[in-house]
Amino acid sequence: DTAVSQTPKYLVTQMGNDKSIKCEQNLGHDTMYWYKQDSKKFLKIMFSYNNKELIINETVPNRFSPKSPDKAHLNLHINSLELGDSAVYFCASSQDLGNSPLHFGNGTRLTVT
Amino acid sequence: GNSVTQMEGPVTLSEEAFLTINCTYTATGYPSLFWYVQYPGEGLQLLLKATKADDKGSNKGFEATYRKETTSFHLEKGSVQVSDSAVYFCALSSARQLTFGSGTQLTVLP
Questions:
Q1: Do A106 and B43 lie within an 8 Å CB cutoff?
Q2: Do B90 and B34 meet the contact criterion of CB atoms below 8 Å apart?
Q3: What is the pLDDT of residues B19-53, one digit of tens each?
Q4: How confident is the model at residue A2 (pLDDT cuts 50, 70, 90)?
Q5: For chain A, what is the mean pLDDT?
Q6: Rounded to whole angstroms, how far apart are CA atoms B31 and A50?
């Protein structure tokens, strides 16, 4: 019955590898997001999708590519991983792009060695 | 552009102490204001919200009042518990943009 679920919870990989993080929401929301949280807990929006359409694409390296096969899923693929990509990545969803509150997944802790 | 400034942490309190975490904002238009809480190892959860001036959001003993004149939305709780230890984020939503503050780490000691 988890509202926003993301997998895997932990991801340890070497520099140069390609990895994906999956996210699914069962809330019927129209909008989904990817956030990056650094070691100081600072949250940075990376992408948002509304009804499978890319809405926000902040300044992130083009090694990061989101994919939304349907409005309940938003996956994040990362190519050529770098040490600086180590962080916790959160998926979130909201009912719409207005003032609706966000529902977050429990995060994926990515460690690049 | 929009911005949120919240007091820097970490904040350490004894159980049953009074808590205030300050939050001020700048925004165009009439934003909605939120407090989110992040417990260790989890994602953020909505704690409370207020959508217009003078609204008071409340939940789990926490309160915050939307003050347009001072552009503030300070979080308060009269008596904190050890289980309130978490990171608290102030946020605003305006013109389809959500802006988070930098987070305040709260530790409550027994």
A1: yes
A2: yes
A3: 999 999 999 888 999 999 999 999 999 999 999 99
A4: low
A5: 93
A6: 20
**Which residue type, as a one-letter code, is found at position A15?**
M
Count other C-beta atoms under 10 Å from residue B108's C-beta.
20
- Beta strand A103-104 pairing with A87-94: antiparallel
In which residue are the tokens 């988070």 written?
B100
The answer to whether residue A99 neighbours chain B at the CB level (below 8 Å) is yes
Is-contact B94 B30, C-beta < 8 A?
A: yes
> Exposed e or buried b for every residue in B34-68, given b needs 16+ CB within 10 A?
bbbbbeeeebbebbbbbeeeeeebeeeebbbbbbe
The model's confidence at residue A12, banded by pLDDT at 50, 70 and 90, is: very high
Contact A102 B44 (CB under 8 A): yes
Among B103, B35, B88, which Cα is nearest to B66's?
B35
What pLDDT does A97 receive? 79
Residue type, position A89, single letter: Y
